[in-house]
Batch of 4 targets.
Target 1
Amino acid sequence: MAIPRVRTTNLPGVGVQYDLTTREHRHLSVIAHRDGSRSLNVYRSDDPDACAYALHLTGEESAALTDALTPAHHSPGVLHTTDLGLVAERIPVGGSSHWNGRLLGDTRMRTATGASVVAVLRRTGAVPSPAPDFRLAGGDTLIVIGTREGVDAAAAILGRE
């Protein structure tokens, strides 16, 4: 079976559109909006340019759907597990979090857990390898990598109200 091709189109001011035609000749598209939300569109089989159904998903709903479509694990926040026993997980910082407005270094996460924050996802974009002086904000999602125990401990630290 041939691997389906995904066509990518930049949509200035909106985001990126990904188009796929299934083996049943159905046209699907996903628009990845700049705010992290997604639009999933299914087109009519008799007219591949006419949208039959559109669904708008928040960033969190999109992440949950991705996890459901690729269930390599049982935890919905886990991104990937390697043979080395490491996991990467999305950990949100809530608006009422103790860490909202505080510096990443103040969490002492790496020292306390051995887990590392490799990126922060923010509505305005991703911040790879944030420094200790990076200021956290409610709504941020931290990508944390470490052992299962370390990532769980990091989630407990970040979940502090």
Target 2
Amino acid sequence: MSCGDPHETECGEVLDHLYEFLDNEMTEGDCAKLRVHFEECSPCLKQYGLEQAIKALIKRSCGCDDTPSDLRSKVLARIDSIRAGQRSGEQVVVAVDTTVEIHVEQARPAPTAAEASDEPVVRPGAPVEAGAPAE
């Protein structure tokens, strides 16, 4: 990706190192170069914001789960192959496997005492049916 404007650091290089920047895995000098680029280049800044939001969402949703080491290896290998394809100018096709295994006991919290009883439970922000008690 390139915005078409000349920059000291090219857009492609910035985006190649975006996750290193987000994960604080770069030297301060390299981080400074990316910050300067983000100030000059709104498309890269937008991509940075998007990736930052995705990373935060994943952390909130999956922060307590351990990542299997083989999954981490597969993801990193796929990222490397995509980057290599982008640098060589090949058309990159990304296939996503949406198979997810969820353990129900871990996916939902244990019921509270009120939920375990026969009384209806109204959660804050949830719609209230006619005749249902409001909190």
Target 3
Amino acid sequence: MRMIAASALLAALVVPAPVLAQDHTEEDAARVADMLRDPVLQQSVAQGMAAASEALLDVPLAPLARAVAEAAGDDPRDIDPNLTLRHVSPDAETVPSQIHDKLPRAMDAVAGMAGGVSAMIPALREMAARMQDAVDQAGNR
């Protein structure tokens, strides 16, 4: 379940990364919120993340498991050569569908936060100006 939450959060944060890397204005944050609320984008990201997680379930783990076994003094030949995450954790089978189902809601939540940031930007700018004035006045004493 933690993997689902982490994947959802990562996807939601990666989508607006180019916008977030720039100087922010209220309009930028509002645009990010609108973008993250777009159901077409949400479905596209959810499908992509579900497909990626499905592929991760089949990544061969045997080479890593053999190295760990050898380092622990165990016989690496005891490791199943077909070992994958899907085999190690049968519950992981549901992860792709859970990501697909829950990611749009996570993106809506991040959109709400981006909308909140948009509303806060003027107050934050005013606070920064007041803090700068206070620092300048303290330096003149």
Target 4
Amino acid sequence: MAIVYATDASFSNDIAEGLVLVDFWATWCGPCKMIAPVLEELDSELNGAAKIVKVDVDQNQETASKFGIMSIPTLLLFKDGEPVDKTVGFQPKEALVEFIQKHA
């Protein structure tokens, strides 16, 4: 599955079904750049168990403010459109796998 880049307009559709890991990020954010390859690797290993969606907070301020995003990267986990978990800051792949699996 490919990583989806969501906008304010597409966000609710992008998270509507299944388990979705949403990465709130920005182009100028150092830790966001560090986590990007981890998310790409994770995406190829999930085999459809969860979808990864990225939201650029500078371009999509409405969505970022709706979920109270104060620090980036913030990763929110959604299940069928509802937020179920949250983690802030860089996370190693193993921690993200565990984060997703506890809600699978």
